[in-house]
């Protein structure tokens, strides 16, 4: 099949490269010329494990190309995916659909022959209807269908998630379009991925419901962690104790500094807004949004407390800036709130991240950056693990003990067992675990 992928970001580039790897012919379109130029020169604009090789292999096989010319890519395609951003709209938190609608207008002008237009971007219920209206109005003559096919991949594990998904959701209101989508996903039959064909609106809502549920699960365990700290219990063991119950499941029960990233924060907000607009507020998710926001700010206070009540004039070393490991994505990372809170309290910040420092420098130009964990910690008054990168899982505590000014460790991801670190003379503070 010939596929045009509009938007070559975290989702579009991974999906495009995976579809090409499954044998389809894919053209990734982006209106950012710098991104396309980089891709054409073999440089991958984002960090995602395995993507470099996957893209290079498929470019070599002539199955994957890149362009800024949407018109020719769409004209040649049987299926056009919209994978552009849907960030929070300033002011009310609803999804900003301007990129999706702009893409729909451009696609409309370029359609030739029967084409299935697929929204892969995360979009509120009813967006498919509006995309269809935009295209129909611009091109009353066009032969097309609009389908919803939300994406469930995670950054850092994107290729595996795309190739071996727990399920594929296709929201198609007509059989012809559903058949085309079945062809698109046929290569995944071998992996036995269940394909759920639903109505378009149901597919759109399923995506938000999934993200909101996962965000709720994280927020639940985070609040249990707070309670653990008060009563001397261990949240890691509570999580295991409840997670072994199949009805609950063990995933997404890892307590931390609050969920971040380009999806959960904006998608929970957008769901809250949709529900309010429909007169059926989802109070549970409203609470999740509020609790998570407060939590990110509370993490700076936790660090201040661990430092004896003041960080004024002190140097705090942060390990990990991205919202999770194995990505360079800094969007809505908890580190941003933590740094702001510590700076307000008078601290100097020195940070290290294996892949996120370039992005972080644009967002936080006024902090110092170090090339590795040890130079980051040198002379510092506290070391804070913000993101659980593998590179931080086997730190040399004896070395750190000698080089830091004060031996304080705040482990916001419970990477270590307190006693292992305390053995080197550190005051260790984790999340929801006894100190
Ligand atoms: P992104 O910002 O990384 O990529 C979007 C790309 O679209 C950018 O490169 C931008 O230049 C391009 N673009 C915007 N308008 C365009 C147009 N009119 N024509 C061509 N290109 C255009 O965003 P992302 O993280 O890939 O997310 C895309 C969508 O997928 C969002 O709705 C997001 O919620 C959803 N999603 C993201 C993830 C994730 O892990 N990032 C996972 C599942 C779903
Ligand atoms: C999330 C979903 O997991 C994907 O299924 C979805 O496709 C994607 O959002 C999206 O819609 O864009 P992602 O944001 O890439 O994926 O990463 P996650 O692994 O879900 O982590 C999100 C945040 O939750 C991170 O800040 C992470 O540290 C935090 N988290 C996750 C926890 O604090 N505890 C956990 O147990 C799991």
From TrEMBL:
NAD(+) binds at residues 30, 35, 86, 122, 155, 266, 331. Keywords: NAD, Oxidoreductase. Pathway: Nucleotide-sugar biosynthesis; UDP-alpha-D-glucuronate biosynthesis; UDP-alpha-D-glucuronate from UDP-alpha-D-glucose: step 1/1. The active site is at residue 263. Residues 317-418 form the UDP-glucose/GDP-mannose dehydrogenase C-terminal domain. One of its GO terms (molecular function) is NAD binding. Coiled coil: none annotated. SMART domains: UDPG_MGDP_dh_C. Substrate binds at residues 152-155, 207, 252-256, 260, 324. Its EC number is 1.1.1.22. One of its GO terms (biological process) is polysaccharide biosynthetic process. It catalyses: UDP-alpha-D-glucose + 2 NAD(+) + H2O = UDP-alpha-D-glucuronate + 2 NADH + 3 H(+). InterPro entries: 6-PGluconate_DH-like_C_sf, NAD(P)-bd_dom_sf, UDP-Glc/GDP-Man, UDP-Glc/GDP-Man_DH_C, UDP-Glc/GDP-Man_DH_C_sf, UDP-Glc/GDP-Man_DH_dimer, UDP-Glc/GDP-Man_DH_N, UDPglc_DH_bac. Belongs to the UDP-glucose/GDP-mannose dehydrogenase family. PANTHER family: UDP-GLUCOSE 6-DEHYDROGENASE TUAD. This is UDP-glucose 6-dehydrogenase. It comes from Methylobacterium bullatum. The lineage of its organism: Bacteria, Pseudomonadati, Pseudomonadota, Alphaproteobacteria, Hyphomicrobiales. The gene is rkpK_2.
């Amino acid at each position: 099949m010939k596929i045009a992928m509009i938007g070559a970001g975290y989702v579009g580039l991974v999906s495009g490269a995976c579809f090409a790897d499954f044998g389809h012919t894919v053209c990734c379109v982006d209106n950012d010329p710098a991104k396309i130029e980089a891709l054409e020169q073999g440089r991958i604009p984002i960090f995602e494990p395995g993507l470099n090789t996957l893209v290079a292999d498929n470019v070599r096989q002539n199955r994957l190309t890149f362009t800024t010319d949407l018109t020719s890519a769409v004209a040649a395609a049987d299926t056009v995916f919209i994978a552009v951003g849907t960030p929070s709209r300033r002011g009310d938190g609803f999804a900003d659909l301007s990129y999706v609608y702009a893409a729909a207008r451009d696609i409309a002008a370029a359609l030739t022959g029967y084409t299935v237009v697929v929204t892969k971007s995360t979009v509120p219920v009813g967006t498919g209807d509006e995309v269809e209206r935009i295209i129909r109005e611009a091109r009353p003559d066009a032969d097309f269908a609009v389908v919803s096919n939300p994406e469930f991949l995670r950054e850092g594990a994107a290729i595996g998630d795309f190739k071996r998904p727990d399920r594929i959701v296709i929201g198609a209101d007509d059989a012809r379009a559903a058949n085309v989508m079945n062809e698109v996903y046929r290569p995944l039959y071998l992996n036995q991925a269940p394909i759920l064909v639903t109505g378009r609106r149901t597919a759109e809502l399923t995506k938000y419901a999934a993200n909101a549920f996962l965000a709720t699960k994280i927020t639940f365990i985070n609040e249990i962690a707070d309670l653990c700290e008060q009563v001397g219990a261990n949240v890691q063991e509570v999580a295991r104790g409840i997670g072994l119950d199949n009805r609950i499941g063990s995933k997404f029960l890892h307590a931390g500094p609050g969920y971040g990233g380009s999806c959960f924060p904006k998608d929970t907000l957008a769901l809250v807004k949709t529900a309010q607009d429909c007169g059926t507020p989802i109070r549970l998710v409203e609470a999740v949004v509020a609790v998570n926001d407060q939590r990110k700010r509370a993490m700076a206070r936790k660090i201040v407390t661990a430092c004896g009540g003041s960080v004024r004039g002190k140097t705090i070393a942060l390990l990990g800036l991205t919202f999770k490991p194995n990505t360079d994505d800094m969007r809505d990372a908890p580190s941003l709130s933590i740094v702001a809170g510590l700076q307000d309290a008078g601290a100097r910040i020195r940070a290290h991240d294996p892949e996120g420092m370039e992005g972080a420098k644009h967002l936080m130009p006024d902090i110092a950056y170090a090339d590795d964990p040890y130079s980051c910690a040198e002379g510092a008054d506290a070391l804070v693990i913000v993101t659980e990168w593998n590179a931080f899982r086997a730190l040399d505590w004896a070395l750190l003990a000698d080089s830091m000014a004060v031996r304080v460790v705040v482990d916001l991801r419970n990477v270590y067992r307190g006693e292992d670190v305390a053995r080197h003379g550190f005051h260790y503070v984790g999340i929801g675990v006894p100190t």
